[in-house]
Amino acid sequence: MTDFDEQQQRYWQLLHQPESLYLLYQAQDVEHFVALMADFLNWPELNLEQMLAFIALQQSSFIPDLARFSQVWFPSRYHAQTKTISWVPVFQRLSKPFLEDDICDARHGLLASFIQPQTLLEPLLSQRESLPSINPNLMIFHWSRCGSTLVASSFSLLKTCRVLSESMLCSDVMHHDAWPSSLIPQLVDLCLRLQGRLRPDERELVIKWNAWDLACWPMLLELYPNSRVLCLMRHPRDILASHQREAGMHMAGRVKAVFPYPLPLTENTHGEPSVDTFRMCVLHGFAQQTAALYQSCRCILMDYQQLNALKPSALSAILDWPLAAEDIEHWQGHWRFDVKRQGQLFVPMVPAQSTLLNESQTISWQLLLNAYEQLLQPLAREKNHDAS
Fold it and tell me: Given a cut of 50, is residue 353 above it in pLDDT?
């Protein structure tokens, strides 16, 4: 006779056993997977229908031992309505240009299809200190379409380096206004301890934030005061041209405005701003945040044109991150290709001369351009100082 309490206990133990989970991960067909589950649960007569019903019953009350559970399970998504997070099994090293691509790969296979743990986020805070603390070696902020993917993916070539590239989980938690502001730093640190947990062969951690996370730089620098910080920007005309071809979330209006600044005065004062005006306002917010970050003396500021002209060895020197000759060689080959289009050589896009309709006549454009040019001034001074 089946002892349901015993099965529940065995299931909880199974989700904390990397070796058993790896056997399930390797199962090639459903029959083999069910047979393994029958063995793990000590349930000889278990069939597919019973297994699915049993797993579904475990979801509502599942509270893991994070220190062990997170050796395999990776928090993948935050559900704002229920304040829960979903988990996927990750056995492979993170290596894709964006973290969401790694998570998408992790969802393939029978283990991820059949077992999909969800947990409430806040109760996990009591276990935060049981997880290894993290100390990012580098945090990358950017305005989008500024070369940040190239920089982050270069570090993912280093076998000892773990790269979190645009974690939607962390961003969604950080910008969810239902949380008390005093709790958000702890929640973000918990998510990063889970996603940024180093494997035995990893020593360094690089975090590339989403563009709209730039608004949170004071909190993030306070959380990780020893992290080196790189902030990338680009001429607004080129960024806007890129988003006209393919709009990012924050430029399509799908991300709530996260900047504590009013929109600059627009020509259309009686209605919603145009798409172009809205995008210029977003970039104006980025420029204001970047200026404040740079004035805090806590970041290396770099323009896309500088980055485009740099050699990989020069970037490693600027970041004070010494690389072996072999790593420099890998970076040089990597920089020749388009990181967002696998196998294609990188060809810089040349924007049209008139990306925006009468852009030079708009107040929003002038405000944005002035803010960008003010940020270029210290870079020009630094260049002249280095030359002398």
Answer: no
Residue 269 has φ and ψ, to the nearest 5°, of -90, -5
Query: So what's the pLDDT on residue 357?
Result: 47
Sign of the Cα pseudo-torsion (350, 355, 358, 362, in order): negative
Q: Report the sign of the C-alpha dihedral through residues 8, 9, 15, 20, in that order.
A: negative
Decide: 191 and 170 in contact? Cβ < 8 Å. Answer: yes
Confidence at residue 3, expressed as pLDDT on a 0 to 100 scale: 75
Q: What pairing do the DSSP bridges indicate for beta strands 84-89 and 73-79?
A: antiparallel
Q: Which residue has the higher pLDDT, 58 or 46?
A: 46
Which residue is it, tokens 């509270």? 63
Euclidean distance between CA atoms 6 and 14, whole angstroms: 12
Q: Which of 228, 286, 88, 237 is nearest to 169 (CA)?
A: 88
Q: Strands 84-89 and 118-120: what pairing?
A: antiparallel
Contact 211, 144 (CB under 8 A): yes
pLDDT of 271-315, one tens digit each? 566 788 888 889 999 999 999 999 998 899 999 999 888 888 888
Tell the residue number behind the tokens 């404040």, with chain if given: 292
Residue 80: phi and psi, rounded to 5, are -65, -40
Position 334 scores a pLDDT of: 81
